[in-house]
Specification:
Length: 202
């Protein structure tokens, strides 16, 4: 239980197991900063930010400079921070894990789904890289892209809601990128397909 605005610093790994109540729990109305040398492994539930299995409210925020990983096969991870997320490090769903993030956010680092993993985001600004690799899935609703969003290796990226694309959407390796909803496509923005088996659907 983290009291007040808190920083997890230094170097190390935190492993949160199958019980969905395992968590780095925040006090109400506070911010957690995860240091660059910290990796948090989450198998199930809400391991960082607000956890509905514990007392408190969701009025918290998280700044990630390290790594948050949903990295257990079959894992189902839902993270919530209603005051928002800033990712300067790595957030990933791998090995078939499912990761959903509730609360608006800004990505300045890398968000990855790989190895059959799934990442779901709502109300995010991407200034870095959001990528789907090796049969994974991305689902992003209400987004602004100033960086790169790509899908590779036979997966599917579904981008919808209200959106602004200022930079690059890419698809390769027999993958699909499906764009729906309504938005603004900047004159300098690009959508790239790199092989005949990949598709971009508007």
């Amino acid at each position: 239980n983290m009291l007040g605005n808190s920083t997890l610093d230094g170097t190390g790994d935190i492993v949160l197991g199958a019980d969905a109540r395992n968590a780095v729990r925040l006090q109400d109305n506070t911010t957690l900063t995860i240091g660059a040398g910290i990796t948090i492994h989450i198998q199930n539930g809400g391991g960082v930010g607000y956890n509905p299995g514990l007392a408190g409210n969701a009025q918290v925020s998280v700044i990630n400079n390290g790594t948050i990983a949903a990295d257990t096969a079959g894992g189902d991870v839902t993270l919530r921070a209603d005051w928002g997320w800033i990712n300067n490090g790595v957030i990933e769903a791998v090995a078939g894990a499912t990761l959903s993030i509730s609360g608006s956010g800004t990505n300045n680092g890398t968000i990855t789904a790989s190895g059959g993993g799934t990442v779901t985001l709502v109300d995010w600004i991407n200034n870095g890289v959001i990528e789907g690799l090796s049969g994974s899935s991305l689902s992003i609703t209400n987004w602004t892209n100033n960086g790169t969003i790509t899908e590779d290796g036979g997966g599917t990226a579904s981008l919808g809601g209200s959106w602004i694309n200022n930079n690059t959407l890419g698809v390769s390796g027999s993958s699909s990128l499906n764009l729906s909803g309504s938005g603004t496509w900047a004159a300098t923005a690009t959508a790239l397909t790199t092989d005949a088996a990949s598709t971009v659907q508007f």
